[in-house]
Amino acid sequence: MLLAACGGGGGGGADASRPPSSADYGGVCTPEGQKLFVRSYLDEVYLWYDEIVNLNPANYSSAPDYFRALLVPKDRYSDGSGSYSGFEPTSLAATATAAAGTALKLTAGDSVPEYKTVRSPGGRTAGYVRVDDFLTGAQDQLITAFNYLKAQSGVQDLVLDLRFNGGGYLYSAQAAASMVTAPAAEGRVFERLQFNNKRQAESERNTFYFTNKVQFAERQYPAGTMLPQLSLPRVYVLSSALTCSASESVINSLRGIDVEVIVVGEEATCGKPFGFRARPNCGITYYAVEFQGYNAKGFGDYQAGFTPQCRVTDNETIEPGTANDPLLAGALFHADTNSCPAGTATGAPSKASLLSQGLATGVTAGRSASRPASASQPGVNGRLLLPTATP
């Protein structure tokens, strides 16, 4: 959707045979025109459009204020305050649309800052992959990481470190989950997107499936490239309250096809099964929740987030993925014992206990960054982005 020039008329005027739409008011940048755009836009795309309480637009000084006032109380994610940045993914500009949230990282190589093998205290070999977002380029980096793990002999467990992952493109999360599984998962539902009841046709054609091939190419691996699949029945996910949106889709989708997902962390994930597209108008970009995602079992109601099975307190002074990383040590303890480490009242192991376990680190195949800046932010705007501009 292109940003309309402000001032002057809209999109050619409304057709008298139909009710006015947001397209008719797009680019009408008077205060009244912008509010008419907001109300029409929400009525068309908002997941909970039928729960909106009608309000007098004259009582609000700006269109973003009016937009926020119209949102239903349960909506924690829609936003109408950001200026349109014009950001489009480099290699998917023609097919992808951006959604709400400040980009955590756009630098090449930062999405997957580390991957390696580690050895547990009990002698098990595990792959460790840290994924800080699912933005453009993450899929290529993930394939490189999984190719490395696939080439190692005797990898018994996988630890996906998503503690800083605020989300990103759904196609990238789809590829990540598909590489955990076996080729037999091909064609099973990864996530179904449910739009409002005015948009049933879009709901019917917006289903993502587990796959053994690259579906949406980035720069390094073309469409049709076979994905390296680890064929694991169990995966450990290191999480935090920053783990959001597309990263939560990885957890939910794998559980939907009966892959055991052991979540290790201090608190529940952010709880965002919803998604949206950017809709710019008159210099403001609006993000209204448009759909909810459901796994193969029809589950998508995790607004309270995913609670860790192993409650382990993270330590911000310790480098993630290193020998003293409490979350990684907790996952490897479970891999050895099939139980969570005993410890404090919060369920976390004591620091002395972790140090005594003597976590052995194997080859670090790729590493570029420590804790990202997002780790110190008070919150995160999750993303759940679609790889198609027109559903």
TrEMBL record:
One of its GO terms (cellular component) is outer membrane-bounded periplasmic space. InterPro entries: ClpP/crotonase-like_dom_sf, Pept_S41_N, Tail-specific_protease. Residues 126-277 form the Tail specific protease domain. Residues 365-379 have a biased composition (Low complexity). GO terms for biological process: proteolysis; signal transduction. Residues 34-78 form the Peptidase S41 N-terminal domain. Residues 6-25, 365-391 are annotated as: Disordered. It comes from Ramlibacter tataouinensis (strain ATCC BAA-407 / DSM 14655 / LMG 21543 / TTB310). This is Tail specific protease domain-containing protein. Gene3D superfamilies: 2-enoyl-CoA Hydratase, Chain A, domain 1. GO terms for molecular function: endopeptidase activity; serine-type peptidase activity. It comes from the Bacteria.
